[in-house]
């Protein structure tokens, strides 16, 4: 449980600068409270002028945010995870942009369960909605937690299918957890929580509906799951963003084909052309994933021995290096390497640069 001062420092940091800048500052200082004790020269180097100005001014509503958060967190089933917590979801930690905060309502242990994302159109065909429910029911019965975004259409059908099967489901939303959007899914959200599901957001309480937040929450859907199934999607669908983020995170991507005459099938057909697996049944999905009983740990983290840590730092050298180049030098898998680099970044040994480049920091 965070102290009042720790909670205030996390909220001030996340409300004043972007996640990339916040991670840079945390890597330099070690904790949100220590960030505000950094010398001026370090802050000037870490933040561009506009962010530097925002950093200097605590949000006017900070006290209200802290008070509301403390009251909300006192309720049963309400929780908050911060980046660096021991039980922060390993799969999400291994992605390129893990959230600094995860607000949770419901059964938090679902974050570590085998899971699959099911996403798609907000305006699916009747068959698309049926497909989402049927696949979700079958995959939930097979032991997977179903992850989606609580939106209308395919998302809602995916949550419903998991609940109909007596399975578990996680909803990742783009607002604060003190509200439900869309309001038409308030009943579904209540049913999800009553059945032992989980609702997740990276946004502070009181965060209103902002369209830019919904594409960003898609990276959390992709990051929590071991694979992503796209049921129906137009060519410009946000579901294709989730699929792309899944590929970047090293996850499996599946797509259900549809009629060549349906606009809602074109996004899935594009994914299949790009390498997504065409699936016609839940078995097609399951055969691409290891049996649950023999599944290894979800995501490797930084090796614990100093020798292995030093070997990775030696492979980096001191010049900026891309993830692909470092994979080739070290022989590590992408997910394992991303997790290791984030741990090194938070420990102050590595800096994340623009363009997804990484650089070893000179110590001493």
Explain this structure.
The protein is of the alpha/beta class. The chain folds into 3 domains: 1-72, no CATH class; 108-294, Rossmann fold, CATH 3.40.50.450; 306-360, Arc Repressor Mutant, subunit A (Orthogonal Bundle), CATH 1.10.10. It is 45% helix and 13% strand. Helix 1 packs across helix 6 (62-73) and helix 8 packs parallel to helix 9. The longest helix has 16 residues, at 126-141. 44% of the residues are buried. Residues 294-305 have low confidence and may be disordered.
Helix content: 40-55%
The number of helical runs is: 17
Q: Provide the low-confidence segments as ranges.
A: 294-305
Shape: globular
Pfam family, one: DNA_processg_A
Protein name: DNA processing protein
Domain Smf/DprA SLOG: 80-289
Domain DprA winged helix: 296-356
């Amino acid at each position: 449980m965070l102290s009042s001062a720790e909670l205030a420092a996390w909220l001030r940091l996340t409300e004043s600068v972007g996640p990339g800048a916040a991670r840079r500052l945390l890597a330099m200082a070690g904790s949100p409270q220590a960030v505000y004790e950094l010398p001026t020269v370090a802050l000037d180097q870490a933040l561009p002028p506009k962010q530097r100005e925002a950093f200097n001014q605590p949000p006017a509503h900070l006290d209200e945010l802290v008070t509301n958060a403390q009251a909300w967190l006192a309720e049963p089933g309400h929780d908050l995870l911060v980046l660096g917590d021991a039980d922060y979801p390993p799969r999400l930690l291994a992605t390129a942009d893990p959230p600094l905060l995860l607000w949770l309502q419901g059964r938090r242990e679902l974050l570590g369960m085998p899971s699959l994302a099911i996403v798609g159109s907000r305006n699916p065909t009747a068959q698309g909605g049926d497909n989402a429910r049927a696949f979700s029911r079958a995959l939930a019965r097979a032991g997977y937690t179903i992850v989606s975004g609580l939106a209308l259409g395919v998302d809602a059908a995916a949550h419903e299918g998991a609940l109909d099967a007596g399975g578990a489901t996680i909803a990742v939303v783009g607002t604060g957890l003190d509200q439900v959007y869309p309001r038409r899914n308030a009943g579904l959200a209540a049913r999800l929580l009553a059945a032992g599901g989980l609702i997740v957001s990276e946004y502070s309480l009181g965060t209103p509906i902002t369209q830019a937040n919904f594409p960003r929450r898609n990276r959390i859907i992709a990051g929590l799951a071991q694979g992503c199934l796209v049921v129906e999607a137009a060519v410009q669908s946000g579901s294709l963003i989730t699929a792309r983020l899944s590929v970047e995170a090293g996850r499996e991507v599946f797509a259900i084909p549809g009629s060549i005459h349906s606009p809602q099938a074109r996004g899935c057909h594009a994914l299949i052309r790009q390498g997504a697996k065409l699936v016609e049944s839940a078995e097609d999905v399951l055969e691409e994933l290891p049996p649950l009983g023999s599944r290894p740990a979800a995501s490797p983290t930084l090796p614990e021995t100093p020798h292995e840590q030093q070997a990775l730092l030696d492979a980096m050298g001191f010049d900026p290096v891309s993830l692909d180049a470092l994979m080739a030098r070290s022989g590590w898998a992408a997910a394992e390497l991303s997790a290791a680099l984030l741990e090194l970044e938070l420990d102050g040994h590595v800096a994340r640069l623009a363009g997804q480049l990484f650089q070893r920091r000179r110590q001493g």
